[in-house]
Design the sequence.
């Protein structure tokens, strides 16, 4: 398939993807088709393979088997930096800001190293990303001096600095107070409204359900539920995961 995905077509297609580390099978036969513009949530117990799935999607890790297509192109063997330039942005579960650099300089690093921009174009892109992440007011603050919500927003800004069509969020709401979480949810919802396709892994289900229109549950490397969020949360498969005490 070589066509370019448009509105309503799958922007991302994960087909029969498996990932193993030696004898450890982390993902087995994962199928996921995400239309352009959709906000998709992923829940599942610790160790289910959620972060690994994001890594296989954005190229931080390479799938052991199966294919990943983005915008109609097979990117299974494409390195992460090229996938970023093609329009994937990702936040990491453990943020990795450059603590000694300012917020602006961190976003600029995303625009240059991530998106391959230079000069004025990189500056403009970094500023746009800070605006989208509601971080312009602290642009000159050293990243190391930010409180937790600010560090979360900076991680978001760094991902947005690649001007992504697909934004991959890995537990960005963890550890926040309820009010902080609500303000981050408002920001993510506005990104969704702007048409950015979102895949969001989150344990804070309340935050997730305020944004996503589709929910997937991943358990021991396979998708055990996929559909309308409240139905998925009520499903037998997800109840079983909850009863296991792991979510
Ligand atoms: N680089 C790696 N090498 C070996 N095992 C890994 C590696 N990354 C993840 N794992 C293992 O894969 C499993 C799934 O991890 P992960 O994708 O982080 O799960 P989740 O994000 O759902 O908590 C865990 O058992 C973890 O220890
Ligand atoms: Mg994880």
Sequence:
């Amino acid at each position: 398939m070589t066509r370019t995905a448009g509105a309503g077509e799958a922007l991302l297609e994960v087909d029969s993807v498996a990932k193993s580390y030696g004898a450890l099978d982390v993902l087995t036969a994962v199928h996921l088709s995400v239309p352009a513009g959709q906000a998709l949530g992923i829940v599942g117990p610790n160790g289910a393979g959620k972060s690994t799935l994001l890594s296989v999607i954005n190229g931080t890790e390479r799938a052991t088997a199966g294919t990943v297509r983005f915008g109609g192109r097979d990117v299974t063997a494409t390195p992460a930096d090229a996938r970023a330039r093609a329009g994937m942005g990702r936040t990491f579960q453990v943020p990795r800001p450059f603590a000694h650099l300012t917020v602006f300089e961190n976003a600029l690093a995303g625009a240059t190293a991530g998106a391959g921009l230079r000069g004025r174009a990189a500056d403009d892109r970094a500023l746009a990303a800070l605006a989208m992440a509601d971080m312009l007011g602290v642009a000159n603050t050293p990243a190391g001096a930010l409180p937790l919500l600010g560090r979360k927003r900076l991680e978001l800004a760094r991902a947005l600095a690649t001007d992504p069509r697909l934004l991959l969020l890995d537990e960005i709401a963890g550890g926040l107070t309820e009010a902080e979480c609500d303000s981050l949810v408002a920001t993510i919802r506005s990104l969704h409204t702007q048409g950015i396709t979102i895949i969001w892994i989150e344990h804070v289900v309340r935050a997730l359900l305020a944004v996503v229109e589709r929910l997937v549950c991943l358990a021991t490397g396979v998708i055990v539920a996929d559909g309308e969020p409240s139905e998925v949360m009520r499903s037998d498969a997800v109840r079983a995961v909850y009863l296991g005490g792991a979510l």
Summary: The chain has two domains: 1-87+167-247, 98-163. The CA atoms of residues 12 and 34 lie 5 Å apart.
